[in-house]
Amino acid sequence: VQLVESGGGLVQPGGPLRLSCAASGFTFSSYAMSWYRQAPGKERELVARISFSGGSTYYTDSVKGGFTISRDNAKNTVHLQMNSLKPQDTAVYYCVAQLDCWGQGTQVTVSS
Asked: With bands split at pLDDT 50, 70 and 90, how would you rate the model's confidence at 12?
């Protein structure tokens, strides 16, 4: 079982960034997928979740209207489109499968 995130980096406040996660080693289309993040000195928090079919999504309040989670079950990938980024969105972002498998994380830094 493996999850590999990509797409992190440095972005200016108000800018967009798109994270991707490539999954392998399990039946991707059978599991909900989530994005978590952990900022320095803070606890890890759930950012967004998408059901196995993609028909249901959840967002933490602080990202509603700015972030969009999506998945492509044919390509075993899940994405997090982040718009209107703020400095407080700076964190390491993790892709997580419902079977409690975590990726290695990708750093997102929002700064001018």
From this structure: very high
